[in-house]
Each structure stands twice: as C-alpha cells, then as structure tokens.
Fold:
Amino acid sequence: MEDGWAKLLFQFELTGWEMTSNGVVRNGAEAKAKEVLELSQFVVTKIPETERPTPDFIVQKNGEQVLLEVTEKEPMEAFAQMLHQAKEEGSATLTREISSSNRLDGVIRAKAKQLESPVALNGFKVLWIAGTHADSEFMTEAIFRTLYGTVRVSAVPSLDMEEMAKVGIAVRYCFYYNRFTFYRARELDGVIFYGHGRGYVFVNPLGVRLKEFRVSEICSMFARAEGMRVVDPEVQHGELDMFLGLDVDRSDGRAKWQYLREKYGVLTSPLVENQFLGLMPVEIPD
Structure:
C-alpha cells in the first residue's frame, strides 16, 4: 500500500519470535494494545465484563474518548498448514489469492457489535486487531482490501492496438469495487491492525463521526509514531486510483465496467493476484 497503494511486499522472518505451531506469538493482545497506547500518554481503563458483550477498554486523552474492542487474529489457515508441513517434511510452498476475505468481514462486523455497549458510554468506536505472527503482512493487505472492497484492475483507454502500444496497460487500484465491511459497519469509526511494531489505523470513510475521527488523538498518534500509519483512501490515495460509486450494484460486473468507463475514461478488468511462498526451516545455532 506504499507509494500510491502499490502492492505490499510480503516478507517475513522466522527468527527472534517465540512461535507456536501455527505461527502465533503469544504476547497478550489486550496487554500489548494497552502498552502501545499508554506509551503515547493515553489513559487506558479496562471495562468490567458483564452478562452482555461490552468493549474491552475506554481510552482517553485530552478530553477525547475511544471505546476499544481488542481481538487477536491468527494466521490464515493455509499459512499455518504451510508452517506445519515445513516442520514435518523439511520444506513447503504456498500459493494463495490476494483478495478480500469473507471470514475477516464476518469477524470485524461481529466484533463491532460489541462496541454497541448497553452502558451509557460515548466516544469513537474502534476495533484493534492484533496479528503478531509471521503472516501479518499478508493479513494487512487482506484487511485493507476487505474494509474498502479494493481490487487492482488493468486499465486501457481503448482496445485499439496501436494506441495500447503507445500508452501501455496501466494497473490501478479501485476502491469500493466489491462489497466492503465499512459500508455495512458505519458506526465503526476505524480499525487498527497491529503486529510486530508496525500498525495501521484504517479510517471508515462512511463513518458517522468521520470528520471528528480524522483529527482525533488516536489518528494523530498513528500519523506521528514510527512504524505507524493512517490509511484514509479518500484523503491519501494514488494519482491513478479509482473509486466505484456507492450506488453501483457490486454483483453486476457490466455496471461496474460501465461506471468506471464513464467516470475515468478507461476500459477495466479486475486482476487475479496470487502470492507464492516457499519455506525451508534452518537451524540457528545458539
């Protein structure tokens, strides 16, 4: 997602982490979230559990209040299977599609409901997802695409071969192309994904408190802190990025094609992207 939302480089190391068989580092998601926020002078208070679901924390700074729900997302199943195979057989490979995830969509929307506290609490509503494992870079991209319905498309001005030879085929990000989580979770102001010292706060462009959240203390923290980033596509996006209109039927490929042609003057086709990984464990001497 760096430099005009160019595709993330999926890199990982298997040293220096206390990994379980599925690649998860056991560091306590809630404890880590509290630690990171307190380092930026937020006051973090645990909300007592009740019979009904409630957020995990109230987070406060300079008169602002955030209701924070914390969850931990383990590696994608295919990645965990690759780790197990490498351990058992000495090597393993994995090929998987880079796309949005129905499973992540379900998890995020279910957790967002816990922010609808029965207690009279006001404040921004934010979900914190911990991903402290070797698959965190891939998961960052999956969350990004799930929250915003993002795909990459090929784009040409026409099918004229001479013109295509002159200008080439562009590859552009298109936001809201598929059904997306933020469209159906408008009470959720943002989603934080944090793993291994890197963190992102994804801003909900359809959130009911969008204007206030963009200038909030928690967004300011992610904008300033090393290794952190605010992701807000409608404010910060690449010059060639496109946005599908919200009134377009996401199940109608022809309607999407027509909208992008009329608005951006290009003929588009969604790309199918895949990631390939190979793994061979190496013993590291003490």
In short: The mean pLDDT is 85.
